[in-house]
Design brief:
The complex is a heterodimer of chains A (165) and B (326).
Chain A (H helix, E strand, L loop, with lengths): L2 H35 L11 H4 L15 H11 L3 E2 L5 E2 L11 H11 L1 H11 L6 H6 L3 H25 L1
Antiparallel strand pairs in A: 1-2
Helix pairs in contact in A: 1-7, 4-7, 5-7
Chain B lengths: L2 H23 L21 H7 L1 H4 L8 H19 L14 E10 L8 E6 L2 H11 L6 E7 L23 E12 L5 E18 L5 E7 L3 H5 L10 H16 L5 H4 L24 H25 L15
Parallel strand pairs in B: 1-3
Antiparallel strand pairs in B: 1-6, 2-5, 3-4, 4-5, 5-6
Helix pairs in contact in B: 1-4
Classes of the chains: A mainly alpha (165), B alpha+beta (326).
Chain lengths: 165, 326
């Protein structure tokens, strides 16, 4: 095997694992936020469908049983729901598009996470990476890692708040 | 039309435009208009004389002007603006075999955009209204400009500490934006729907200072995406391939959106846009991209198999596609 191919495959390996972990943590954060702001589960938290559409159809291992994002994505897909600005765009699950690069999908996810984390980061009282820091990162993996750290931080803070309630 | 005829026509149009603009604007609030419309008053055209000759536009001060007269006058102004900007240089995506965009006008502002985001801009500062009009009225699609972070925004545009070169405090990494739709308001402001498509690094600034910066930039996809085009040591420049592929993917990744799509209905009037761009369900990925991506997909799927074997507990059912013999 050529060395360059080996490097490329190693990159993919880390990227696949990193993406999976980000999805799991994102789902956990949304679940915790729901418990915090709406314990009776009366209203669903709004989740950007542009992010949900990036969810892999065939992850390298099955999603956990309580993983809600996969069910939500399937629902949007089956019901052909219109989403986006004033609900005028058809929902797109990018894995259904032949030829769309999984690297590109991961890159897009890494840039989009701040739209969720930035709105709740005040809870964590911690600024972390700025958007400019994220932009300047040269690899998707590095950016996903930063996203994962921020998600973990937020989850920990919400857990603490829930315990003190 | 040959070049000589075209130049003559352009000169004629510009002279006509300038004359008409002088008629319409003299004595009115020029400050509402972009700085590009500053003109040299004609010595013998004193305001009094103009007022008597052009009663429609100049018979009254702006506060006495009727709404219809104002609208008619502003329509003429917009037409003139278009004629001024019709021959602007176009900003094109990188040429084949290149990762570079030349002469990109830069909007240096106090926040960072990220690829995949979109925004509504209300441009009211004269120098940027001028810049955006040059982009809007250029004869090309998509219409590109660069978005780059500058603490303090226009206040620091001429600050040497933020000169666009390595070693200063200036951010050298920004985002290539495309203008999805625009509307010019009666007071000269521009309403724009913009979509962030790609990351870039400034290679060289042609102009650092006001009215706005212009630079040559290099498009920078992430390392992993670049490496996914690696077919071996003798296989040319992966960066170029990644950039070409990225630009071919933009129509799919960024669904066009109009101002009408973003108009709030009901009592609350305004414009609102989702912060993230949607994928375009009606857009298909070109065949050559699909063919070019097969290897990249295979690498990921092979990796998924390996990772699956490493991490999956044995009791979990593995779909046939991901089963491996190791």
């Amino acid at each position: 095997m050529l060395e360059t191919q080996f490097i490329s495959q190693n990159h993919s390996l880390l990227l696949v694992v990193e993406c999976f972990q980000v999805w799991i943590k994102l789902d956990e954060m949304i679940n915790l936020l729901q418990q915090l702001v709406d314990p009776n589960n009366e209203n669903a938290l709004p989740i950007p469908t542009q992010i949900v559409g990036l969810l892999p159809l065939k992850p390298y291992k099955p999603w956990p049983e309580n993983f809600a994002l996969a069910k939500y994505a399937t629902k949007l897909e089956i019901e052909k729901i219109l989403v986006g600005t004033f609900s005028k765009s058809p929902f797109v699950r990018v894995d259904n598009m032949e030829g769309y690069s999984p690297y590109r999908r991961a890159q897009r996810l890494s840039f989009m996470i701040p739209v969720l984390t930035d709105s709740v980061i005040a809870l964590a009282n911690e600024e972390g990476n700025t958007r400019q820091d994220l932009l300047e990162m040269e690899s998707t993996e590095e950016r996903l890692d930063a996203a994962l750290q921020k998600l973990e931080l937020i989850c920990n803070v919400i857990l603490e708040l829930l315990q003190n309630k | 039309m040959d070049l000589g005829q075209r130049n003559s026509r352009n000169i004629f149009v510009q002279v006509q435009a300038k004359m008409l603009l002088t008629k319409i604007l003299f004595g009115l609030h020029v400050s509402l208009l972009p700085s590009a419309f500053a003109f040299t008053p004609i010595n013998n055209c004193a305001p009094e004389r103009l007022k008597s000759r052009y009663s429609l536009s100049l018979s009254a001060s702006p506060k006495d002007e009727s709404a219809e007269d104002r609208e008619a006058r502003m329509d003429m102004v917009r037409q003139l603006q278009k004629s001024f900007y019709q021959n602007e240089d176009v900003i094109l995506p990188p040429e084949r075999g290149s990762t570079i965009i030349k002469d990109l006008p830069l909007w240096r502002v106090q926040w960072t955009e990220l690829p995949g985001f979109q925004n509504v801009l209300n441009v009211h500062v004269a120098h940027y209204t001028n810049m955006f009009q040059k982009v809007i009225f250029s004869d090309t699609n998509p219409k590109y400009f660069g978005h780059i972070y500058l603490p303090g925004g226009s206040d620091n545009l001429d600050n040497p500490e933020y000169k666009l070169e390595e070693g200063t405090k200036a951010s050298m990494v920004g985002v290539l934006m495309q203008i999805a739709d625009y509307k010019q308001l009666n007071d000269g402001r521009l309403l724009l729907i913009v979509q962030a498509v790609e990351k870039f690094r400034i290679v060289e600034a042609q102009r650092h200072h006001s009215p706005y910066a212009i630079a040559t930039v290099e498009i920078l996809p992430d390392e992993e995406f670049i490496e996914s085009f690696d077919d071996g040591p003798a296989d040319g420049d992966n960066h170029i391939k990644a950039v070409e592929s990225a630009f071919q993917l933009h129509p799919y990744e960024v669904r066009p959106i109009t101002i009408a799509d973003c108009a709030m209905e009901g009592e609350t009037q305004g414009i609102s846009v989702s912060p993230l761009s949607n994928f375009d369900a009606e857009c298909k990925i070109p065949e050559k991209i699909i063919e070019g991506n097969i290897d990249a997909h295979d690498i990921v799927f092979e990796t998924e198999q390996k990772v699956g074997c490493l991490y999956l507990p044995k009791r979990i059912h593995i779909p046939h596609r991901f089963q491996c013999n190791a």
